[in-house]
Specification:
8 strands, alpha+beta, 6 helices, single chain, globular, six-stranded antiparallel β-sheet
Length: 141
Amino acid sequence: MLVGEFQHNIDAKGRMIVPAKFREELGESFIITKGLDQCLFVFPKSEWEKLDAKLSEQSLSNGRKIQRFFYGGMVDCEVDKQGRILIPANLREYASLEKDIVMVGLAKRAEIWSKTEWDKQNKMFIEDADEVALKMEELGI
């Protein structure tokens, strides 16, 4: 399971170290694509295949925008000998990744955030604690 929060840096060439704990779960090759809220989604191949099957089933009228979003930004990443991956420039730009980044595990996928955007998300979470509590109650948690 992908869990935890790890702070790292991205170098001038767009490479980042994938936490060892995540490398074990993701394997040597995995998928990165645009995510929601201006982050990147990271999927193990098995989870990407599930999403791919759902996306592929969508009709042109219903699915084209979400297909463009996920497939257009998709890249198959391989970990190098130093435990790094290269994040393409278009994805770095989309997620505003410059130097300080955060990788967060969310069970079946991970997310890559700029530290600035991640801090904003955490601040909103704290400010919206009552709303979060209501959602948890709706889920029976």
